[in-house]
Specification:
Helix 1 packs across helix 2. It is built from 3 helices and 3 strands. The chain is α+β, with helices and mostly antiparallel strands.
Length: 112
């Protein structure tokens, strides 16, 4: 089993909200890698950056999120768009577990 140290201040370990962001980014990243690999695209690396906005009042839930995918390799833009959309619409269990009124934006940059 794996132990995780949580810290509400994010000093000794991630906060629960940081873990939520990491879970969403990680889930979609894994989906995208699997989809691009299955499509035999020239993916060499993938990095995902998360930015989000929380409600100002408790429970300060996430109200919007942006995932920026940074792709290394020879991946066609259309394949990247399709992989992100498939993750979002069908595969990412983390995204589908969140409140459906959260605004999710995505973008990508391909670095050959």
């Amino acid at each position: 089993s794996t132990a995780i140290v949580l810290d509400s201040d994010g000093a000794a370990g991630p906060s629960p909200m940081q873990l939520l962001a990491e879970a969403l980014a990680g889930c979609m990243a894994i989906d995208v890698v699997m989809i691009l690999t299955k499509g035999r695209h020239g993916l060499k690396s993938l990095r995902v950056s998360f930015t989000g906005e929380r409600a100002p009042e408790p429970p300060r839930r996430v109200v919007s999120a942006t995932l920026a995918f940074h792709v290394g390799g020879d991946v066609p833009g259309a394949a990247m768009e399709r992989a992100i959309e498939l993750s979002r619409q069908t595969y990412c269990s983390v995204w589908h577990s969140l409140n459906p009124d959260i605004v999710l934006q995505t973008s990508y940059q391909i670095h050959p």
